[in-house]
Amino acid sequence: MRLTVLYFAWVRERIGQAEEVVTVPAEVATVADLVGWLAARGGGYAEAMAAPERLRAAIDQNFVGLDASLAGAREVAIFPPVTGG
Amino acid sequence: MIRVHVSPDPIDIATEMTLAERPKAGAVASFCGLVRADDGVDCLELEHYPGATEAALERIADHALARWSLQAATIVHRVGPMRPGERIVFVAAAAPHRRDALDACAYLIDRLKTDAPFWKRETRDGQASWVEARESDAAAAERWQA
C-alpha cells in the first residue's frame, strides 16, 4: 500500500522531514503498525516513535486513534498532542 | 455565519468583532489569547496542519451552531513566529442573548485547544522547545461532552 505520511512538530524534527511517500507491506494494517514499521528504520525514526503513547494521528485529515485501520487511507499524519490556542 | 481564518498576519480585533456583529444578534461574546510574556519566552512559533486545521475549526464552529442559537461563530488563529504580547487566537460568538453567546464562546476556545492541529514551540535565550499538552486543557474540553 502506498501512503503519504506527514510529520509535525518534534516528530518532524526528529525524522528530519515533513512528508514522504512510503510503500508499506500488507501486514501494516493500522496506524500503530505503521508507527512500529517506521520505528524499525532506526535513527531519527526510532527516536520519534519511541513512545507511541505520546503520538497522535490523522487519516485523510481526520483525527483517529492509533488502533485505526489504514484500509483506504491515502494520507496519514503522525504528531504529538496538539497545543494550539 | 461561520468565519474560520488561519494566517500568519496579526489579528485585527476591531475588524473581527464587526464581522461577528449580525443583524439579529443582541450579544457578541469574544475571547482573545495573547502570547504570554512570562518565564523568559522571547518567541513563540505556531506550526499547523494546513487543510486539516481549517476543517477542524469549521467542525468546532458547526457544533457550536448546532448546540446554541447563534448568528455567527468566528475562529481566527495566527500561525508562524510571534512575540510576547501579540494576539495568537480570537474567537467570537454572536447570539440573540448573552447566555448563548457566552457559553458558545467558551466552547469554541475550549474545543480549539484539544481538537485542532496546532503545535507551539517556544524560544528562550535562543533555545527552542515544544510546548507540552496540558491535562487541564483536556478537562476543559471534556466538560462540553454532555
UniProtKB/TrEMBL annotation, chain A:
GO molecular function (one): nucleotide binding
Question: Which processes are annotated in GO (biological process)?
Answer: Mo-molybdopterin cofactor biosynthetic process
| Keyword field contains Nucleotide-binding | yes
What NCBIfam families would the database entry show? moaD
For the keyword Transmembrane helix, the answer is no
Q: Name one Pfam family in it.
A: ThiS
Which organism is the protein's source? Sphingomonas pseudosanguinis
Q: Which InterPro entries match?
A: Beta-grasp_dom_sf, MOCS2A, Mopterin_synth/thiamin_S_b, ThiS/MoaD-like
Q: What family is this protein classified in?
A: Belongs to the MoaD family.
Its name, as the record gives it, is Molybdopterin synthase sulfur carrier subunit
**Key words, A-Z:** Nucleotide-binding
Q: Which GO terms describe its cellular component?
A: molybdopterin adenylyltransferase complex
Automatic annotation (TrEMBL), chain B:
Name the chemical reaction catalysed here.
Answer: 2 [molybdopterin-synthase sulfur-carrier protein]-C-terminal-Gly-aminoethanethioate + cyclic pyranopterin phosphate + H2O = molybdopterin + 2 [molybdopterin-synthase sulfur-carrier protein]-C-terminal Gly-Gly + 2 H(+)
**Hey, which family's this protein in?**
Belongs to the MoaE family.
Under Pfam families, the record lists:
MoaE
According to the lineage, what is the superkingdom? Bacteria
Q: In which pathway does this enzyme or protein participate? A: Cofactor biosynthesis; molybdopterin biosynthesis
Q: Which organism is it from?
A: Sphingomonas pseudosanguinis
Q: Which UniProt keywords apply?
A: Molybdenum cofactor biosynthesis, Transferase
Q: What is its EC number?
A: 2.8.1.12
Q: How does it assemble?
A: Heterotetramer of 2 MoaD subunits and 2 MoaE subunits. Also stable as homodimer. The enzyme changes between these two forms during catalysis.
Q: List the Gene Ontology MF annotations in alphabetical order.
A: molybdopterin synthase activity
Protein name listed in UniProt? Molybdopterin synthase catalytic subunit
Q: Biological process (GO) annotations? A: Mo-molybdopterin cofactor biosynthetic process
Role noted for this protein: Converts molybdopterin precursor Z into molybdopterin. This requires the incorporation of two sulfur atoms into precursor Z to generate a dithiolene group. The sulfur is provided by MoaD.
